[in-house]
Structure formats: structure tokens, C-alpha cells
Amino acid sequence: MLAGKVRRVVVGMSGGVDSTVSAILLKKKGFEVVGAFMKNWDGVDETGVCTADRDCEEAERVAGKLGIQFHQVNLVKEYWNEVFEDLLEDYRDGLTPNPDILCNSRVKFDHFYSHAVNKIGCDAIATGHYARNSYGLELEFADPTRPARLLKSVDRTKDQTFFLSQMPQAALRNTMFPVGELPKSVVKQIAAQAGFPEIASKKESMGICFVGKKSAPGKRGFQEFISEYIPDNPGDLVDIDTGLVLGQHSGLHHWTVGQKTKLHRDFHSYFVVSKNTESNEIMVADDSKHPALYCENFFTSSPHWIAGAPDQLRSPSSDRSLEAEFRFQNMSPLTQCVMSFNMSSTYNWECMDQNSLIVSAAEPMRAVTPGQFAAFYQGDECMGSARIVRPGPSLYMLNVRNCRTEILQEVESRKTKGEDVTSVT
């Protein structure tokens, strides 16, 4: 007997092992399962093959073998208008966006969810994401008086809540994550035992959907792809310590904070510290752990709270602050932090700005990157996320432990000794 009122479930199928096993598990439990492939991109790879069509054919083959209905949902226009055009604009503005988070929030759990419910017809949808729903594996604990909460997967090494951190509450209330309580190794075993050994052994897809992964000679990577849409705009690479121009870059959109450049001098590699859209300059430092790459706080745009804004942010008893953990890169270690609403002011008054957070970390953070999302956690719950607008002052700028003073003294010492501080190979 099925719990609650869920009978018919549309499973988002990609032809991969996680979505395949999701469909297998739901069918075994007696749900009426319908497979649906979400097509986001029109295009061909270097061999002249449309990878989306190939994935769709594989998903349809799986659905046929499982004996379930199959639909293709074309969301190419929605993806272009609501994800890709914003991505291009962000790169032009010197930001580093995260299209995967935007695809989930704006396309998969908005347009796809709506299509599944209203056009295909279902009580719930399911995806192969490694995550859990507080409403239960089969939504058996659904309660209209309580919000659904997004929880980390049991297999922490595969947890994907970071990518779901902008998920709408309406969709989460009606979404199942069938593999969220299983280790990846068990998921592969289930696929093999169910007659899909070729899917169980398939390599995981790690690339952005419209680019793919540059894993073989001759395949284009993101640099080549983005150049088709944004023209190169050369500018200077400037040493943050000396102010000297060390070389040229072909465009801000090709680089992100913390990235290693191709500059080398005196056995040192150089790393991107910041990008200046006004001067079209990239500041670089000669050490991957240079203090200019580290800061202790950052500012965000309006946060998205999946289950509603935490009361502590408005409560005087908690100093209108919230203790939590966060990450701004998937699977990077969680860092303790304290967050509060930013303050806005005019000439004679100051108030909380609920459209912005200031997040202070328990330890210095490397390469906090504007355009990326910071996802917030308390225990197992992913509370939501906010887009990083700008980092706070770096340790270098603040001269923490005299770091800047010592570096500049070393630069002056090299000049005094007559060493070349400008040559680049």
C-alpha cells in the first residue's frame, strides 16, 4: 500500500545510472512511473553528434526496457533565456556564474516540474540527485502546515545539495530523491543487477551540459566554447605587489579568482587575485597562498531560503545573527560562519537590508569569487544560498600579521640587489 496520495511519479531521466536506478526503485515499490528527458541545449559536438539527442535515446531505451512511458520535454528556449543569456552577461561583467545551480532552480524545478505536473500529469517528480527530503523518501511525511526541508544525502562524497540550494519550496514539497539514502557503489550494483551493466559502468558526466568535458585530444573546452559568444578583450596582467605589468590576458571572461595563469618568473607561478572591469586589468600574485587571495568575510545578494528565512536573522535575542556552515564550491569542506543582514543607510538613518547578507567565516577563505553561490547549512539541512557580490578586504589589504609589509620589504630588497622583477618567461 502506497503511503499518502502519491501514485504517479515522473522521473527526470538522463540515461545515467542515478536516474535509471531512481526509476527502477520507484517501479519496484509499486508507483506508476513515467520517464521524461529534459532537453536544454541544441548543438552538436566535434563528431557532428547532438549529445542531447544521444542521451535522450539512451534514456528512452532504459524506459522501454523498464516498461514505462517516456516523454521528451523540450526546454531549450527556457534554458537559453533564463540561464544561458544571464551566464553570458555575467561573464561580460567579470563574474564567474554557476549555471548548474541556475538550471536546477529556473528550469528543472520550475519549467520541467510544471510540465510534469500539468502536462504529463503526476502526483510528484523524482530525480537522481544525491539529496534527501524531510518529507521522506516517498513523501510519506508530507505536511501542508510545515515546509519541506532539503537534507544532505547519506553518501556525503556524492552530496548534491549545493546544486539544489536555490530550489523552490513548491517543487521540493513534491520531489523524491530515490538514491539519496544509498551509497554510489550500491546504486551501481542495483543498475547492474537490474540488467543495465553498461550504464552502471558508464563514466560520470562532469561537464557543463552545453560544453561537456574536455577529456580527449581535439575536444573543445570551456575557453573555446565561450569565445564563440563573447569576443576577446585583451588587457594587462598586473603584479599586485609591484604594480608592474607582467603580461596580457585575452579577456576577463577567460579567468576566475584563484586560477593559475601561464605566467612564470623566478620559479614562481602566478594566480588571479581579482579582476577590474573598469580598467580591464587582472591582478595576479606569485603564490597560490598569497594573502591577497584570502579574506574573512563576504557580501551577498538577496538570499534564497528554501524553508523560509531563519528567525534568528530578525531576532534581537540572537543579535540578529545566525551561526551556520557554508561552502561556495561543491564538495569543498564546510566552514563555520556567522551571518547577518547587511546594513543600508542614508545621511541620517541606518537599517537592515534584507536583500543582502554579510557572512563572516571562522577562518580565512581562499578565492571568494563574485558570481558564485554560497550555500548555507545547519546540521543535515541545506537552508538555501545567496550569490556572492564581493569579498571583504583581503588579509593583504588589512596587513594581517604585517604580511603586506613583509612582502613589500622583500620586493624592495630584490630591487636593491638589482634582481629583475619584470621578466616573464
Structure description:
- It is a single chain.
- The protein is an alpha+beta fold and 425 residues long.
- Helix content is 26%, strand content 28%.
- The strands form three sheets. The chain has a six-stranded antiparallel β-barrel with strand order 13-17-16-15-18-19. A five-stranded parallel beta sheet has the order 3-2-1-4-7, with helices on both faces.
- β11 and β12 form a beta hairpin.
- α1 packs parallel to α2.
- The longest helix has 23 residues.
- The chain is globular, with a radius of gyration of 24 Å.
- About 2% of the residues have low confidence.
Summed up:
The chain is an alpha+beta fold and 425 residues long. Helices cover 26% and strands 28% of the residues. The longest helix has 23 residues, at 99-121.
Q: Residue-averaged pLDDT, rounded? A: 91
Distance between the termini: 71 Å
User: What is the tally of helical segments?
Assistant: 10
Radius of gyration: 24 Å
Helix content percent band: 25-40%
Structure class: alpha+beta
What general outline do the C-alpha atoms trace?
globular
> Main sheet: which strands, in order across?
13-17-16-15-18-19
Helix and strand pattern:
EHEHEHHEEEHEHHHEEEEEEEEEEEEHH
Number of strand segments: 19
Let me know the largest β-sheet: 6 strands, antiparallel, barrel
β content, as a range? Answer: 25-35%
- Unreliable runs: 212-218
